[in-house]
């Protein structure tokens, strides 16, 4: 090949399944120029990847631009359809693995994995050209036809498992509401020691009553936003509210005191389910806004609420459908209505409409 008409990538050579592949660091400015993504409107059997989900791109672009000091993008995987050669820096040992990958400029680079990252990089560069000289890792595979590219896509995604929402929140240090939820889960008298921090669902034998994702949703409802300015003040307000709520739900304390098992409480009562926590949070937001000094007194009627799942008269059609706890938006609204009523709060017009329909036996979407 003529060196004047080729790309040169400093690379490390490796072997998988008897085939050579290469790992390199590419400047971001090259990503949208040389790495192609098959976005043609072809039937699935003639494409090498899934179609691009354009709704994901703004969020990924925003992440890149707003976290210039500590963003992380994992490697792209690409196939090279064209002539290549690898010039190692030496003939033996590690030196034989290090070198330069020379790729003819007529070659095509097809993204097998990372098409959304590629597009986000392209959009981010338009808004911030200073990203151009930063780099991203690229894994190159050679001489792949359509069948092999499709198989690579299937293999690369075969064991990909999205982390649970709770685990994502636990490890998220940019989201202020996640910090609030973690503080409440670990420090409040209401939730300390009974929150599952990794999983989003609880097994029947779990010793935990709540999930971190449920605490997050409840605190977000209480604050009325997922974007709080002050973690300290929001955490203090949430902790005070939930600790006061817990005074009127003795089963939460019984679990911590080993007087009841978490499984028994989740099986027999609905107050540990996320729908109730969210409803308590939504009602609490209005309560704190309208009665900033007397809100604690208005919580007292909670001690007379029958939270038993067996009380179908109270909960069927609200928090439960056919005896099973549900969390559709309609169910959350009707459960919130009941709690607002106990707090002596007025319903919004939308809530009043849903309540009237419920009382008539109608379903309102």
TrEMBL record:
Annotated Pfam families: DndB (PF14072)
NCBIfam families per the UniProt record, alphabetical: DGQHR (TIGR03187), DNA_S_dndB (TIGR03233)
InterPro entries, per database record: DGQHR-contain_dom (IPR017601), DNA_S_mod_DndB (IPR017642)
Name of protein: DNA sulfur modification protein DndB
Organism superkingdom: Bacteria
Phylogenetic placement of the source organism: Bacteria, Pseudomonadati, Pseudomonadota, Gammaproteobacteria, Chromatiales
